[in-house]
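COMPLEX REQUEST
Ligand: adenosine-5'-diphosphate
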Amino acid sequence: MTTEKGSISIHTENIFPIIKKFLYSDNEIFLRELVSNAVDAVQKIKRLAALGQYNGELGEPLVAVSLDAPAKTITISDNGLGMTAEEIKKYINQVAFSGASEFVEKFKDAKDANEIIGKFGLGFYSAFMVADLVEIQTLSYQEGAEAAKWTCDGSTSFEISAGDRTTRGTSIILHINAESEEFLSEHKLQEILDKYAKFLPVPIQFGTKTTEEEDGVDEEGKTKYKSVTAPNIINTTHPIWAKAPADLSDQDYLDFYKQLYPFAEDPLFWIHLNVDYPFNLTGVLYFPKVKDDFDMQRNKIKLFSRQVFITDEVKDIVPEFLMLLHGVIDSPDIPLNVSRSFLQADSNVKKINSYITKKVADKLGELYQKDRKSYEEKWSNIGLFVKYGMISEEKFYDKAKDFALLTNTKGEHFTFEEYKEKVKDSQTDKNGNIVYLYTTDPDKQDGFIQSAEKKGYDVLIMNTPIDGHFVGSLEHKLEKTQLKRVDASVTNQLIEKDEVLESVLSEEQSATVKSIFEKAIVKPNFSVEVVGLSPDDAPVTVTMDEFMRRMKDMAKMGGGMSFYGNMPDSYKVAINGNHKLVGKILASANEEEQSKFAKQAVDLALLSQGMLTGAELTAFVSRSVELI
Ligand code: ADP
Ligand code: MG
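STATUS: Structure written out below.
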């Protein structure tokens, strides 16, 4: 073969400085690109053999990555199909993009290397992000092929000449540049391979060597290297998502989970995804054990394309509410190398999104049907996903409404339908609305809960971070149903009935009581009301209006209700006209005493609800001491 020199067909004078400069942050992906090319080459020769187009020895498929730190080289070699000199010219020299001007136009806005490399077919050229000289040694599988060598120093000129390879396949030798010497570390390369190559479908071998000659040259006249770290296979070529569910045991799924997340607790259950039409997707999604730490576990799903790790940012591909799931998704149909905005608009991505939503809903429905008891036991974990999903996706709500559970203060679980049946007789108000009562804090609201239960009402527990929104969405979805926190008003008024509340006080006495309390309360945002409750009910109850409280809660969570967030808290103070204490206050000797008792009664109410703090609490304590 004669040596040929030429120019890579890019019209821009020198594209490599551009690639290097703009892709610098992501430069570790050079290894992903070169190793995947090697894997592709091995798979191609296997396919050719299967098709009868290659009849030679196939050998054990292998991709070997080796580091020679003293020589400052990294070599990626494979026993794939190899290339002829003509093929090098075709596939390597004619960089696959329409024109440098387009590239230069586009790279300005590119956010990461992925974007450019994919869009312009620059996989191989990512080598120049870390190398100032790249050498290809290759021998094609084709009969009579001659070994070829290609070198390029990062300028646009290359050289092709006769190569050294005596066996089929390709070696890419990277002469690592001065700025990229971090990659000349065994540890670093191992880390990158663990990230990208752990599940590649062809065995990947990794080892390091020194240039130190052990005993000179071998029979073929090539330098012998002394191994520092013996090469070993670093990947699993048949990860579970690439297998059929029927061939897998529960233990296989659990083992794989441990492999992915060594420090996590066992998952609750998993879903094996497997579609080939209208898009291709496989994967295993795990429901982890999570409770309240809402944001901590995000971005745990790993995205692969034909077993090459791509990213663990699956936003846009996995529905938002399933971002808390763990596991892997593998799809060659997800456009991986394009910008986020394009991804959102991509129709495959949309289909994948709704497929995953449906699969998850079906799985949950199946678990509920199959074993309700164990489903209920898992509900405190699953509930988070289900509620989140119901709030954010209409389609998911429609499926989940049959297996979503409501839990009451007694720890009993009900489906929506069951719960409606349970409470509709006792908790329908005079306008025909069913009122669901709930507590956000069973300890703090205990007094209200007890009082509601005494009246025969049931109280649901809504104490997770998502429940505030869930309550809102239930009210929106369920017909003629209202949700009220159990302390939204005095128990008698929670569910408005036709019966009138009788007070033993005369109208005049009521007015007097009201004014005593109004004077006693110094805070600005209290309104006082005298009502006739049972003598056993609390003498004073402080409540915050349901609507107002919800708006404030949402403002706190950043729900855009800042108008409400900025408003001072305002409370209703209900005085139980039928309570002994009120009679006693009315009968007190003088105004000072009346006021003291009133203050004390209000503070007691606040105290029982955990609302008495700071200076007011201090004043209450000293007043109490004085009264004793
Ligand atoms: P892509 O992999 O997307 O085609 P690349 O720039 O990574 O783009 O590679 C360009 C082409 O060079 C490949 O399509 C393939 O034909 C050829 N090639 C690269 N690496 C190898 C290899 N190790 N063995 C055989 N052919 C290779
Ligand atoms: Mg490639």
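REMARKS: The longest strand covers residues 204-217. The mean pLDDT is 85.
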